[in-house]
Design a protein that fits this description.
This protein has 332 residues and is an all-alpha fold. The protein is built from 16 helices and no strands. It has helices spanning 2-13, 20-36, 42-61, 67-90, 94-110, 114-130, 134-147, 155-169, 173-187, 194-198, 206-219, 225-237, 248-264, 268-279, 288-300, 310-321. The protein starts with a helix and ends in an 11-residue tail after the last helix.
């Protein structure tokens, strides 16, 4: 409470202008929240995220901002609104997520930050993907890819990965291969930018790129030894919680993809072993993307020769119960 009171004092202290201490305080808070988002349950950071976004908006609306500070505050507004939008998506509220993404995009445009503008198109694609609107997901990813065409950071690669995943749901294998190959080629020419320096949701690490590529193949219904090996590598990429790019959602997603690939390869026991850590996640971590990924595995268990096996029936029942109770998601 003492720290919160001191922060409120600092944020309100400069009545005529925004001071450098205020911007420094917001910098620290944005960095903390960006680092925490992929690693902690949403309920642990949600209130702080909304409060910091409100503080930035209050400064932008207050008319006390020097021209030299305006772009910086708009970048912060875009970054925070991006994370709030992702939070709404994690809570399975796609309409609110999309609205908040548009707020992020407006801030990014006011900041004239092409990388963030492209990233907001990527987030629209992500929201549509998990809302089972693959045509929209592909459209937004393509728009973002066009904006990011001359960006040297990893946001351009993320948009190609989003294109590939949406194309996979649409059954377009040729586009999946083309987009993933372009992303692989561009990886060699990446020059990290200010978004990559932020980290968290704003960088597209090699291990995440592999996870997306495997997911596209899994969504297409592919199995086989080579893909299973890649899927195992994707899981391994997120096996160390102390690694800088670790994210519990990406780990769970890659584990679900490994389960799918093993199922399509006829390895029912291997699939059950792959999804077990996901089903053991505490309720606080069962966000929308993780639940939808698990449901894909359940759907795959209803077809094929293994569907009548006892293991398959038990696993289907367990996955069905998986999203039933998520009390720790901070629904608003």
């Amino acid at each position: 409470m003492a720290v919160r009171r001191a922060k409120d004092f600092l944020l309100g202290a400069d009545r005529e202008r925004v001071g450098e201490d205020t911007l420094g305080l917001l910098d620290d808070e944005v960095q903390r929240l960006v680092a925490a988002y992929p690693r902690e349950p949403l309920s642990a950071i949600w209130d702080d995220l909304l409060e910091t976004q409100e503080q930035v908006f209050r400064l932008l609306e207050g008319g006390r901002v020097r021209p030299s500070q305006l772009r910086d505050l708009n970048v912060k507004g875009a970054v925070l609104s991006f994370m709030v939008a992702k939070g709404f998506n994690d809570m399975e509220v796609p309409h609110q997520a999309l609205t908040m993404t548009r707020v992020a995009a407006a801030c990014a445009r006011d900041a004239e930050h092409a990388g963030l503008i492209a990233a907001t198109e990527g987030l629209k694609s992500l929201i549509a993907y998990w809302a089972d609107k693959p045509t929209d997901a592909y459209h937004y990813a393509s728009q973002g890819a066009a904006v990011a065409e001359h960006q040297r950071g990893t946001v351009a690669l993320w948009l190609l990965g989003l294109q590939a995943r949406a194309a996979a749901v649409l059954g377009d294998e040729e586009t999946v291969r083309t987009a993933n190959q372009q992303a692989a080629d561009r990886r060699e020419r990446v020059v990290p930018d200010d978004l990559d320096a932020l980290g968290g949701l704003f960088t597209y690490a090699p291990e995440k790129q592999l996870y997306y590529a495997v997911e596209a193949e899994a969504v297409l219904g592919h199995g086989g030894a080579q893909l299973a090996q890649q899927a195992e590598q994707a899981v391994q990429g997120f096996s160390d919680p102390t690694a800088p790019n670790w994210a519990f959602g990406d780990l769970a997603g890659s584990q679900c993809d490994l389960a799918l690939v093993r199922l399509y390869g006829g390895d029912l026991d291997g699939a059950a072993a792959a999804i077990r850590p996901v089903l053991d996640l505490p309720a606080s971590h069962r966000n929308n993307g993780i639940v939808m990924s698990a449901m894909r595995v359940r759907q795959a268990l209803t077809s094929g020769p293994a569907r009548e096996a006892v293991v398959a029936r038990d696993l289907r029942a367990e996955i069905e119960a998986f999203p039933a109770s998520r009390p720790a998601l901070p629904h608003r």
